Amino acid sequence: KEILEKYHDLFTLQWEGVIGNMCVPSQAEWEQLLTNCSAFLFYGMERFMSHILLNWLAAMNIPKCRLVILLDLVRSQQSYERITNSDIHKSCLHIALERPTETAMLLSLTGVGSVIATQWYTTLQENAERLEVLFKSLLSSCKTTGQTVHILQS
């Protein structure tokens, strides 16, 4: 919340989404958020694709979304139990499609222009630091996504 408040004035007037852990977005809400945005940020626990139905995403067409930022792959005991219970009902191929590279490919096939994503499990603190760098570079310094990724890598 601190980072969002810090960069609030640099956001567009149409900033919308779900913040906090009080409610889990429905598939319809995910679809609305993804199809009506020019940029999408996911900052959450476990794999982004574990929150969205794979068949639903594969059928989507979201060319207006030019950038997706996935700050996921954070694990807690509670999220690990949730994902383990969810994965029991999925095939190995389905779980494989939820990995970072495969997720980026699926998003690209739906029309997303660029995807910035974590590649391995991390902590909330590390993702908060990444989010700070992303917002500073993309919003304050007006750097391109490529320049921003280069900053994140170093």
Global shape: globular
Q: What value does the Rg take, in angstroms?
A: 15 Å
Main beta sheet, described? 3 strands, parallel
Say what oligomer this is: single chain
Which spans have pLDDT < 50 for at least 5 consecutive residues? none
| Largest beta sheet: strand ordering | 1-2-3
Assign a percent range to the helix content.
40-55%
Order of helices and strands: HHEHEHHHEHH
Tally of helical segments: 8
**Overall tally of structural domains:** 1
Number of strands: 3
N-to-C span = 25 Å
Overall mean pLDDT stands at 89
Structural class: alpha/beta
Strand content: 5-15%
Structure description:
With 154 residues, the chain is of the alpha/beta class. The chain has one domain (1-125). It is 46% helix and 12% strand. The chain is built from eight helices and three strands; from the N terminus they run ααβαβαααβαα. The protein has helices at residues 2-6, 27-35, 54-58, 77-87, 92-96, 100-109, 124-140, 145-153; strands at residues 39-45, 67-74, 114-117. A three-stranded parallel beta sheet has the order 1-2-3, sandwiched between helices. β1, α3 and β2 form a beta-alpha-beta unit. The chain is globular. One of its GO terms (biological process) is axoneme assembly. This is CFA46 protein. InterPro entries: CFAP46 (IPR039586).
Keywords:
single chain, 154 residues, three-stranded parallel sheet, CFA46 protein, CFAP46
Condensed summary:
Helices cover 46% and strands 12% of the residues. The chain is α/β, with parallel strands linked by helices and 154 residues long.
Strand and helix layout:
Layout lengths: L1 H5 L20 H9 L3 E7 L8 H5 L8 E8 L2 H11 L4 H5 L3 H10 L4 E4 L6 H17 L4 H9 L1
Parallel strand pairs: 1-2, 2-3
Helix pairs in contact: 7-8
